[in-house]
Amino acid sequence: MSDRHGSLISVRPDVKVVDCTLRDGGLVNNFRFTDAFVRDLYLANIKAGVDYMEFGYKASKEIFNPDNFGKWKFCNEEDIRAIVGDNNTDMKISVMADVGRTDFKKDIIDRKDSVIDMIRIATYINTIPAAIEMIEDAHEKGYETTVNIMAVSKVNDADLQAGLEMLAQSNVDVIYLVDSFGAFYPEQVERLTNRYMQIAQKYNKTIGIHAHNNQQLAFANTIEALSRGASYLDATVSGMGRGAGNCYMELLLSFLRNPKYNKVAIMSFVEKHILPLKEEGVVWGFDIPYMLTGTLNAHPSTAIQFIKEKRKDYAMFYQELIDDAL
User: Fold this and answer.
1) What is the pTM of this model?
2) Among the four residues 12, 16, 224, 294, which has the most C-beta atoms within 10 Å?
3) Are residue 295 and residue 274 in the same domain, yes or no?
4) Phi, psi dihedrals of residue 299, rounded to the nearest 5°
């Protein structure tokens, strides 16, 4: 077992907080955020001391019809610049690119011509070679890079080890532990983070954590990974994200002892923008259907559909999930 990194009262200079509200939260409302929401979130993140703000996806317009989504599904350079200008701040800008869903050679321009600082690549275990191609492309264009291996709760140990070794030998800067289904408990996150950290130390990489809140454990799992050496911490304002959502930014900033982090601006943003969004009927956050998919290590899509249909027959839904798992 590895030693804990830091204590409850210490500051870790390696820690970076990444705001994923527009990207993970965009999955809730098809990325249809107002410019005022995005601009105010940008300003709030700067005041709060957040290190990176993820603006959304670099999705392919050949695959996804722009008429069906807001602009943060595609993150055109001019749209980001309309919010941030040249981003003359200490906070960096990131976007996510999914393997197989991004025209990365065309849509990700050279870093010197972009206001984006970091490209975050999302992959499944079976698409790691394609992810490495994207990592090297972004690296050659001058970007910082991260990689998220999704759905690792479904991956066997040997495949995960092989995948981590392959990614660590690329030019990627940060490898993320991702709890896609909100299925992990802190004990499992401890064990996995130790494993990721062994790879990181071997190849001089950094580790991040991206948690989902199906079992009300996104914050607990995030600080568990942090305590085991993870440096890049993903969170969203009020946990806004697909299904059960993510680690609450408000909680994370309250936990971190670095005086650069300040939750007051985030709370003001919640008051101005998040509460009205919920009043409009935009739905995310812990609920029994998400708890059930989390405990069964299942994709939340069935729970999302259950809630859309306004079903309340939780016991029957649980039986359906068990039947699907057999």
Assistant:
1) 0.97
2) 294
3) no
4) -60, 140
Handedness of CA 19, 28, 206, 114 (dihedral sign): negative
- 173 lies in the same domain as 302: no
Q: Would you say residue 245 has pLDDT above 70?
A: yes
Cα distance between residue 181 and residue 161, in whole Å? 20
Pair (250, 316) in one structural domain: no
pLDDT tens for residues 5-56? 999 999 999 999 999 999 999 999 999 999 999 999 999 999 999 999 999 9
Does residue 148 sit in the same domain as residue 171?
yes
DSSP class of residue 6?
Answer: S
Nearest 5°: the CA angle 22, 28, 31 is 45
Q: Say how many C-beta atoms besides its own lie within 10 A of residue 211's C-beta.
A: 28
Looking at residue 113, the DSSP 8-state letter turns out to be: G
